[in-house]
């Protein structure tokens, strides 16, 4: 089995290296698929990770969720089952052996449609656990991913065949030890699905004042149950999650839309500029102006 995994991984590395050519993140013509290439280790980068399969074929990466650290390389893959504020850092990459990876989005609606037709729909659910987890690569999953990537050489076949191969990848993940987390986001009566709905509400309303009892009512949970299960999935409370969303969006506004710190803070829900600057500095290690100047210079 290991030799088959190694062969599939080498074939994927050759394809990804050919389709990326230069360092950076590259969107592919297959919906939901992107690839990354880096020739040197990166600085820690904060962002929101959507539900996705993250597969490295060369190099190594570290992903941090709260105080949890997930390190994975070409022997393991990572799955995010809900939207999560993370910090990612490529820790092994060289010009001779660049970091090569791909990310395939996992739309919860597609997973839900598959769960209802699979045997797993009637299996008992484990308690909700972390929305990030790492598993060892297996040849069946790598074979499906390889067939998906090879479609990039046959663009006329993508519209017809890519959805079928992606559906197989979803099925392989459901049958793996990642299945429990994915079923949680797909099954409407599960606690994990309710947490995912609360996360969705926060992402759409992050700039609004947050009342935990209002969100709990929206997702049909008690405030204490929501707080408990939300922290089990995300490592943080709903209020801490909202703060991460606000500060990351403020940073994006200052970089992409060139607004000043006071405007950015106000647009993401801060009434006090001093509180915004203080919490921004705590999260990013520098006040807004200095942080943005550093990012632009780099």
UniProtKB/TrEMBL annotation:
Keywords: Transcription, Transcription regulation. The keyword Cell division does not apply. Pfam families: AraC_N (PF06719), HTH_18 (PF12833). This is Transcriptional regulator, AraC family. It comes from Pseudoxanthomonas indica. GO terms for molecular function: DNA-binding transcription factor activity; sequence-specific DNA binding. Residues 196-294 form the HTH araC/xylS-type domain. Transmembrane segments: none annotated.
